[in-house]
Amino acid sequence: MASPPPSVTPGTMQNTPDEHPRTRARLVVLVSGSGTNLQALLDAIAADPQGYGAQVVAVGADRDNIAGLERAAKAGLPTFVVKVKDHATREEWDRVLAATIAAYAPDLVVSAGFMKIVGKEFLALFGGRTVNTHPALLPSFPGAHGVRDALAYGAKVTGCTVHFVDDGVDTGPIIAQGVVEVRSEDDEAALHERIKEVERTLLVEVVGRLARHGYRIEGRKVLIP
Ligand code: GAR
Questions:
Q1: Cα of 113 to ligand 1 centre, how many Å?
Q2: Residue 15 has pLDDT above 50, yes or no
Q3: pTM for the full predicted model
């Protein structure tokens, strides 16, 4: 599949004045589940389409029949599903995923509850412009069970981290974090629900700032003018 060139160079999105955005940053959002973070982005954009500074141009997933895809369809957005099991190798899956996303020419890719680790081909195209949200205060409790692991460890505070994706598991440069207190009566579901309340607000805020102001990544530091 031909891959249209990205409209900005990774990590060097140019400033767009808040008051008069010339163009809205193009977002492809990736989901694997309920998609409440996606919904928060869609709601923020619907509330102020120009002022927010970004638009969702497509929503992708690694599985069918999830609420995240239904939310996208309800919003009238194109969707795509690229499943690992439909490909001979993980590398092939990664290549097809990257090419499918590239066809939408995103400025930023937002991994909003996407439960897959991306590979080399994906990072070659979207490294430095893929934002992930994780339900723990990285570098503590990376991986697929950030909420459960913080609870099991006995942490008194946890939260969420919005970061750029690199070739590790939840190791990329941190953009912003939100703190949530762990309560003695918490189980995984209750704690995750309180984290997600903070996370949705943080993700919307961070993506909007990146889109409107541009950013630079210097080592582990993310600088938003
Ligand atoms: C979010 O809490 C996100 O941090 C988490 O999945 C949830 C998705 O919720 N992601 C991970 O755990 C990735 N390691 P949502 O589908 O309602 O947006």
A1: 3
A2: no
A3: 0.91
